[in-house]
Amino acid sequence: MTAMKDTPLVIAGKEYHSRLLVGTGKYRDMDETRAAIKTSGAQIVTVAVRRSNLGQNPDEPNLLEILPPDQYTILPNTAGCYTVDDAVRTCRLARELLDGHDLVKLEVLGDEKTLFPDITATLAAAEILIKDGFQVMVYTNDDPIIAKRLEELGCVAVMPLAAPIGSGLGIRNPYNILTIIENAEVPILVDAGVGTASDAAIAMELGCDGVLMNTAIAAAQDPVLMASAMKKAIEAGREAFLAGRMPRKRYASASSPIDGTFF
């Protein structure tokens, strides 16, 4: 039997063996954060710069003490930003705090209730940051036209939502996600809306390069156990995508062939 072959996830020229990216918010404490992220096997960990201490508050616990940058790729994000100026300023602050680190996750929100992205502001912020030397991974809606435009601007990864942030509703429009994947020449990672392991597996079966999640793990009754489940779901979904599922059929067909048998 021929061994299954896969290629690593490559973002901004760096290879990763894990296709699960995780956040750091909403955990009960630092110990739970550390345990869940370690169990997930994630190598890229996203951090909300406006809500986390990365050293700017010396009298508070520093997140980097439990997530050392020599063990994880820290992905600062602009969560909570509603304007272009705020998002750009936040990325520049992160670059200072992380000694010139230029890989960032851009999100510019347009609505406090749904946390849907403001696409016009996202495009404008992405253009500014890319010109300023940032490697931009960008949160967006599931519009294939906008996804392609963000890629053409120079974003290193495009991250369409599956459903509203923190909703746990799963992938609401798989056909749009599939279209985005088919048209892309950069990694496509589902960001937002995953609620449980089956949602993550479906995203990977569609052909996504990875999945970013936070609430699905942190808000579970047992976050560490859910982190383990998500790791396995990502791996299983990727293997299923590479294996190629059987065609869907309207009617049943026998599992065992009957041609040429005697009755």
Strand order in the largest sheet: 5-4-3-10-9
What structural class results from the helix and strand content?
A: alpha/beta
**Termini gap:** 33 Å
Q: Write down the Rg.
A: 20 Å
N-to-C SSE string, H for helix and E for strand: EEEHEEHEHEHEHEHEHH
Mean pLDDT: 92
Largest sheet: 5 strands, parallel
Strands, total number: 10
General form: globular
Poorly predicted spans? none
Approximate helicity band = 25-40%
Helix segment count? 8
Proportion of beta-strand residues? 15-25%
Structure, described:
This protein is an alpha/beta fold and 263 residues long. The protein is built from 8 helices and 10 strands. The protein has helices at 30-40, 84-97, 119-131, 144-153, 174-183, 197-206, 215-218, 223-243, and strands spanning 9-11, 14-16, 20-23, 44-48, 73-77, 103-106, 135-140, 157-160, 189-191, 210-213. Strands 5-4-3-10-9 form a 5-stranded parallel β-sheet. A 3-stranded parallel β-sheet has the order 6-7-8. Helix 6 links the parallel strand 9 (189-191) and strand 10.
Brief account:
This protein is α/β, with parallel strands linked by helices. It contains eight helices and ten strands.
